[in-house]
Amino acid sequence: MSTTSSFGENALVLTENQVDPDQKTSPSPQPRRGVKRKTWQTVIWFVVLIVVTAVVLYPLVWLLFATFKPNSEFGSNMGLLPNNPTIDNYVKVLEGIAGVPLWRFFTNSLIIAVGSVIGTVLSSALAAYAFARIQFKGLGILFAAMIGTLLLPFHVVIIPQYIIFQRLDLIDTFVPLLLPKFLATEAFFVFLLVQFIRQMPRDMDEAARIDGAGHLRIFWSIILPLIKPALITCSIFAFIWAWNDFLGPLLYLTSPENYPLPIALRLYNDQTSASDYGATVAASFVALVPVLLFFLVFQRFLVDGVATQGLKG
After folding, report:
1. Distances (CA, A) of 15 to 1, 10, 126, 164
2. At what angle do helices 228-243 and 102-133 cross, to 10 degrees?
3. Which candidate among 19, 42, 183, 242 keeps its CA 20 to 30 Å from the CA of 89?
4. What is the pTM of this model?
5. Rounded distance, CA 131 to CA 125, Å?
6. pLDDT in tens, 3-51
7. Phi, psi at residue 255, to the nearest 5°?
8. Which residues does 251 contact at the CB level (< 8 Å), separation at least 6?
């Protein structure tokens, strides 16, 4: 009896679960309004970003096309495309000016920029480690004085610095432009690295001291590898600032063969009291290319360095 009853109940359940295919009704799909709205928002933002990018990049694109304009079109043709394209501007730039070829100006700028990067990174990192990890008397006063130099305009110290280098017979050399970089005179970079190092736990330093490591060993083997994003950020800014520096080379360099590119650009507007706008624009674009390449190569490290967001595992 029990077996028959159980069999009947199972049959009843199977019968109830079976549904006639003709009687099945699939639910009608609901319109995905949220997805459509997000899609339109994405398209709108994409268009806005394209417009903003075009506005930001237009001066650079105009400069590129202006390098192919003859001198007669400057002042009359302010449009993007030249009416009579020519490569004479690049020919003049490659030939050089004042008896100095272009590669000499380029080499001078490269020496100043690379030397500034090396000096700024090394000296700023050492000073930042001292402020962030070493406890000594007058630490707070010296750090406040260092931060205070950010408020001191460069023009205030021009005359004293010039007198010092003149008495040392270092005028018309690269020493006045490079020596301060090796003395941690850039307070902005020191402050950036100090803030980055302070976020690192001191447990690593204590473990290294137990193993017998000193400050130099800790700095070189532990701190430097961990502050790599900040160092690259400092390198980017130091390179751009040194490459585009005009006032410093104008003060300390007097011979055309020692001029960097920013000073060489002035020569195209000073010779025989006539301005060669085509060559000036072409030289400006040539001087801009290394900065763009340097930034594009290292720009992915820029956000990490500025954000200074702790350690990476």
Report:
1. 21, 9, 83, 104
2. 140
3. 242
4. 0.77
5. 10
6. 444 444 444 444 444 444 444 455 555 555 556 667 888 888 889 999 9
7. -95, 135
8. 158, 162, 176
